[in-house]
Structure formats: structure tokens, C-alpha cells
Amino acid sequence: MRSRVSLGGVWSAWKHLAWCLLCAVVAANVAESARAEDPWIVLPGKAGPGQGKHVVLISGDEEYRSEETLPALAKILSERHGFKCTVLFAIDPANGAIQPNQSNNIPGLEALKTADLAVIFLRFRSLPDDQMQHIVDYVESGKPIIGIRTATHAFNFQGESKFKKYTWTHKGDDFDGGFGRQVLGETWISHHGNHGSESTRGIVAAGQDKHPILRGIKSGDVWGPTDVYGVRLPLPGDSQPLLLGAVLTGMKFDDPPVEGAKNSPMMPIAWVKSYTGAAGKKARVFTSTIGASTDFTTEGVRRLLVNACYWCTGLEDKIPEKTNVELVGEFKPLPFKFNGAKQGVKPADLLK
């Protein structure tokens, strides 16, 4: 005798399936809504040597458009090289939009707990203790750090804070020069090149042409319209300059260098060093004073920063002869200037 399935049973099965599909759609919409409301972005790593590594990129400066550089860098790292990337921003708590002038709010710093590398591009931040604690815990853990441009003067605590020694002007034997000098190798000193009229060309430092970070980079490949920063020579501790900054007469990559003392000697614009945190572990540190969003349009600048991410995470043997640093999606950076950020942009907008 053949078994029979009743129409009622079929209808019941279809109802159950429809209900399951509806629940899945609702759940997906809720997840998407939650992601859209997050004041940060997360980019999963695709195929590449960086798979399994988590890079947290922290933006927040008023002038050089770190809110443009770091998402563009994160997209290259995740899409081309396999790194999972979380990008954090200075956020206006009133509307959830990216606001570089908001110096006291960077949500999501808890992500540093699972980070394998922190990329810091901040300027004069005065974060509340609960947010700053995450940065300090990471720095003192001995995990690697990259500092870009104004990270040399990342913090400026003027009120009460238990982290005042991180301030760029801090004096004292305990942490002289603050985070910039002690961790990255220098604090803010000066505009060595004329700001806005003398651009920067990277020249490979003597004996450093074989360093993994410079793989695929030769003198002249790194150029940007931002000016050379002044530093005190020699840089402290075990700092090793990789690139020197030739101050150019104008704002084009092929302008000649200026004559005289500005280029004799040339200031380092990219160097490596170590920092031993409270945990006793020695961290790899890379600092670049070039890296504004307008600098990032130059292939050599992108290669410098991507290669540095490989080196900092111990993947220097995986750096190819010419790292793929093709931009992912449209990248049209705004000029560097104060109050020059695009207004009303929310982190989720950067994923569209």
C-alpha cells in the first residue's frame, strides 16, 4: 500500500518553512541595522597572508584627513592581503557622524583587546579615562604599533586625567615627550618644510635599501604634498631611519629640492624602533610623518604603509617584491586643512 501525505501535512510543512525564512530575513535585517548604527567599520579579511591577523586603525585629526586615509588603507589590507580590519573614528555623540573636531570621543576602542596591530593617526586627543585605558593597555602589552603623521602629538590632556603623561608636551624622566617621543620616537617639533608650499620626496636612508618595509620602494617613489616634519637628531634609542624627506621647492612630485640647510641634513620621515611596555615585551614600532589622505594617492606611500603592516605583524617574509596596493573603490581625498572634513558622514556610509 502506498503511503499518502495529507494536504494538511504539506500545508503545515510549507507554513513552517515560510516562518523559518521570515525569521532569517528579519534576523538579517536586524544585524544589518545594527551594523549600520555602529560608530565604526569592520572589514573581514579575504584571501592573503594576513588572514587571522586583526588590525585596528584609529583615526582622529582635524587637518590631514585621517578619517579618509585609514578606511582606504583598511580596504587594501582586507581586500588585497587578508587582514581583518576595524576602523575607529572621532564621533559626534549627538548624531553619530564622523567629526574630526570631536577630540574626546572615539567609540569602539575595546577592539584593541583582540588586535594584532594598532595603526594610530590621531592629533591632540583628550579622551576620557575609560576610552584611553584601552589604548594604554594595548601600548603596554608589547604588541606592534604604527604611528602616522600627527600621531607624534596624538594626545593633549589639559584637564584631569590619569594618563596626562601621554600628552605631547609632557616633561619628566618618567615619560618625557609623551606618547610621541617615548613610544613612536618623536613628539611634535616643527614644520621643517614650508607648510602648504613645499612638498616631500622620500629618499632611502643609507644602508636601508634592503629593509623589508622598503621592498619595492626606491628613492622618489614616496611623495606627498604634506611638508617634512622637524625631528631631533639622532632619534632616540634603537630608532632606525628608513626614509629621509627631501624638502621640495613646490607642490609637484618632480619639483627640485630646496637648496641649503633644510636638506642638509634631511629629516627622517619614516623609521622603525622598539618599545618595551609594562608587560616587559618589546614591541615593533613604525612611524611615518607622511600619510595624509592626499599623500595616500601616491602608490609609494600606500606601499610603505602596507609593507609596514606586514613587518609589524611579523610577516616580513611574506612581503612581495611589489606589494599590491591598488585602491579599493573610489578614493577622492579632500585637501588637508582645518575644518575641511566632509560633514554628516557616518561610518556605515564608507561601506557603500
Given the helix and strand composition, which structural class is it?
alpha/beta
How many whole angstroms does the radius of gyration measure? 23 Å
Give the rounded overall mean pLDDT: 92
Q: Which residues form runs of ≥5 with pLDDT under 50? A: 1-5, 22-34
Can you give keywords for this protein?
single chain, 352 residues, 10-stranded mixed beta sheet, 23% helix, 18% strand, disordered N terminus
Give me a quick take on this structure.
This protein is of the alpha/beta class. Helix content is 23%, strand content 18%.
Report on this model:
The protein has 352 residues and is of the alpha/beta class. It has a domain at 44-187 and 274-351. It has helices at 7-37, 66-81, 129-141, 178-184, 299-312; strands at 40-43, 54-60, 84-88, 117-122, 145-148, 190-191, 200-204, 223-224, 229-230, 240-247, 267-276, 282-288. The strands form 2 sheets. A 10-stranded mixed beta sheet has the order 1-3-2-4-5-12-11-10-7-8, sandwiched between helices. Strand 2 (54-60), helix 2 (66-81) and strand 3 (84-88) form a beta-alpha-beta unit. The model is unreliable at 1-5 and 22-34 (pLDDT under 50).
